[in-house]
Design the sequence.
């Protein structure tokens, strides 16, 4: 039984269709279909019911899916045992934040690809939290305060942030000086998140309100510079605004807690060698990154 056929079946089952699985695998739809046909012929059972909207697992396919995924994972683990060094091979799917990823993390992936020419890297940039298992990612890089999750996280760096507003906003509305003064101000947020402030060693949490929201830090920085409200943003996004005077730090006596840069992966006994080496390279590169207050930890 071909291991690529097993992996392809698992991808189609998880992605819900041949087209989506082909995109994940980086191969044509015809190759995916050929692998599925070969696997079903070898097993003598139909694993997937094809529909106009995709593919659904049959009863046999549902029973076989977890076994196939487990076998593929065990083979990968076995390969790592007998080949613990040397070039990485195969595919690595990584989800990265759009705000921070293209500037700080994409060069790390490029370096990983340069060092390992047999490795296929598929990266996706979005500020939403992807479902690693459902969407077929090996890992994700997340920046900020880590939310509770059943995922396994490894901190690879520290990122600092500030509360800021434009001079025009401050002139028109004043600048809050303490957390409890945030309430009457327009907060620029990604959603309904709480804001945290350090009062000495104590963390104070406030739920601000605002009419302008965006799922991207760069967009929020532009809104803050336009005078739409106060924002809590990382230094890597706002450094040039602060340097030019377009944004001014506020509430400096109550700074936000430092946040982390994390590698997130699905739960399991051990990280794959690909994820482990990416993690080590991120630590190496972020420690040496002189830009915008990102420091390895």
Sequence:
């Amino acid at each position: 039984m071909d291991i690529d056929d097993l992996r392809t079946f698992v991808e189609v089952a998880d992605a819900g269709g041949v087209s989506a699985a082909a995109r994940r695998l980086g191969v044509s739809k015809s190759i995916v279909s050929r692998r599925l046909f070969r696997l079903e012929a070898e097993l003598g059972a139909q694993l997937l019911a094809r529909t106009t909207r995709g593919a659904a697992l049959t009863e046999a396919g549902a029973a076989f899916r977890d076994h196939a995924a487990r076998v593929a994972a065990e083979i990968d683990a076995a390969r790592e045992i007998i080949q613990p060094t040397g070039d990485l091979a195969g595919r690595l799917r990584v989800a990265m934040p759009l705000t921070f990823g293209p500037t700080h993390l994409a060069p790390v992936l490029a370096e990983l690809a340069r060092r390992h020419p047999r490795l296929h890297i598929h990266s996706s940039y979005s500020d939403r939290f992807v479902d690693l298992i459902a969407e077929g990612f090996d890992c994700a890089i997340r920046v900020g305060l880590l939310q509770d999750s059943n995922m396994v996280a490894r901190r690879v760096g520290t990122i600092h942030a500030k509360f800021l507003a434009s001079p025009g906003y401050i002139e028109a509305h004043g600048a809050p000086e303490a957390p409890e003064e945030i309430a009457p101000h327009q907060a620029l947020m990604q959603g309904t998140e709480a804001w945290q402030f350090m009062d000495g060693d104590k963390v104070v949490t406030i739920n601000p309100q605002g009419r302008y929201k965006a799922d991207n830090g760069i967009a929020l920085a532009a809104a803050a510079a336009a005078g739409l409200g106060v924002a809590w943003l990382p230094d890597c996004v706002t450094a040039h605004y602060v340097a030019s005077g377009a944004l001014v730090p506020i509430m400096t006596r109550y700074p936000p807690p430092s946040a982390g840069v994390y590698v997130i992966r699905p739960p399991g006994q051990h990280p794959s060698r690909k994820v482990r080496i990416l993690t080590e390279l991120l630590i190496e590169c972020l420690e040496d990154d002189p830009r915008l207050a990102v420091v390895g930890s």
